[in-house]
Amino acid sequence: MDLSKIEETRDENQNPEENLVFHYSRAERLKRAPKIVRDYYSGEFKPYKGGLLKSLVATKANRLLFVTIVFTFGIILFVRYFGPEKKSGTLNKVDVSASAFSYDDSVYASVKFNEAGKKVKSDFTEGVPVWATVTAYDKDGGAVAEEKLIGKYEGNELFLRTTFSDYDIIRIGAVCGMGEALLSLECPVEKR
């Protein structure tokens, strides 16, 4: 590009900022632009249509991130279903959960039988006897106290509750029964 013939200033203007002359050429600018920019202005640019899975494994960094996410998700599922704590479960198509918390010098433990679904609620209209044996464990894993709770489940929400004196109880275990079915639950004691 020959710049010798370009007039750079105008003599008739007294203001120095107005003496500059600016020449813009899109063709000159696009010659030095990256290929993606040149393709965009020429109309040849085609957006990436790979899909989610292809974009997740397109580069090494993306593959590493994808494998890490899958591995972490697998660990979470493994711990959730095979881990040591099992706070809830199903007993004769009824969801059952255990919870415990300490307040002042007592530990309050409860076993909750949730409301039955519409399809099985008719099975419990006459009432079914339920029971729960709640055991309190200390930090060494030894049983400190145990109490058996009895109730009648009629398809509505039912709580079986008990209170223990706090002898450094850190975990509650509950063996629940409904008819012939048994369910074992465990939960830590929350400090409040």
Name some characteristics of this structure.
4-stranded antiparallel sheet; 4 helices; 192 residues; alpha+beta; 22% helix
Counting DSSP H or I runs of 4 or more residues, the number of helices is 4
Radius of gyration: 36 Å
Give the overall pLDDT as a whole number: 85
Characterize the largest beta sheet: strand count, sense, and whether it forms a barrel.
Answer: 5 strands, mixed
Distance N to C terminus: 79 Å
Give the total of beta strands.
9
Q: Helix-strand pattern, N to C?
A: HHHHEEEEEEEEE
Oligomer: single chain
Helical residue percent band: 10-25%
Q: Tell me the β content.
A: 35-45%
Poorly predicted segments = none
List strands and helices in order, with pairings.
Blueprint (H helix, E strand, L loop, with lengths): L25 H6 L3 H8 L9 H5 L3 H23 L5 E4 L2 E10 L2 E8 L14 E11 L4 E11 L4 E8 L3 E10 L2 E8 L1 E2 L1
Parallel strand pairs: 2-9
Antiparallel strand pairs: 1-2, 2-3, 3-6, 4-5, 4-7, 7-8
Could you give a quick summary of the protein structure above?
This protein is α+β, with helices and mostly antiparallel strands and 192 residues long.
Walk me through what this model shows.
Strands 1, 2, 3, 6 and 9 form a five-stranded mixed sheet that branches. Strands 5-4-7-8 form a four-stranded antiparallel sheet, with no helix packed on it. Helix content is about 20%, strand content about 40%. It is an alpha+beta fold and about 190 residues long. The model has no long low-confidence stretch (mean pLDDT about 85). It contains four helices and nine strands; from the N terminus they run ααααβββββββββ.
